[in-house]
Amino acid sequence: MRSIKALSIGLLFGIILIKSEAVYWFRIQEMFHFESFHMYGIIGSAVLTGAISLIVIKKMNIRSFNGEKIDLQSKPLSIYSNFIGGILFGFGWALLGACPGPLYGLLGLGYSVIIIPICSAILGVICYALLKGKLPN
Amino acid sequence: MQELLNFLSNPWPWYVSGPLIGLMIPTLLLVINKNFGVSSSYKHMCAAFGLKKISFFDYNWKDYSWSLFFVLGIFISGIIVAFFIPNPNNIDLSENFIVWLQEHGLNNANGFLPQEIFCFEQLSSLRTLIILIGGDF
Asked: What is the ipTM of this complex?
């Protein structure tokens, strides 16, 4: 049952993502050229809505639909790691013009060549896993 | 019905899609009590493929199977959009950016990705290889 719910939310998310134009290579590159407000508007309003929702859930102690306590995983704030990670993420985002989520959507839209960056992402995780012990984390 | 389909096939403005994307965070929490995230799906895939020799992947991936269903949903959403609600028009890019694209030999700003870069025939080109493999590594 949980799987079907997760799949449905993924479906909804994917359609919104495609309709927002955030999966378009052209939009992402336009954003990196500072030629349009579109992507900044999307990201800004998405972060704001997400943050407000989280604050409301936390302050009002809202429970999930089946009565569980909401499991908010707060990660320790590490400015240094987030900074390095953010920069690396940006390099990849600008180079490919897509981030991990939209890749699945693009594959579904029929761009079969996207299977290569997906495999490459998996390869990237494997390399990280192998190197993890040697990195300062 | 036709009007609904028209609305669905046209792209949405950022102030509609941005907040909707943000609302995915509380939706996931309220419905299945999970923290929003796509990138970790690549890690869970490795765990599901059975790369247990690497300690990073040595956990019960079934606890995270929702993540794989979630991205399967994104993939299916791509198929649905492509078949039922494709956007008939080119996206509304800034004039400056279109000029920049043309200067770089990208004359077709239709579809999601520039076909000149993202196609299997181009795989022999170093540029495409770097973009496709480097981008999400």
From this structure: 0.91
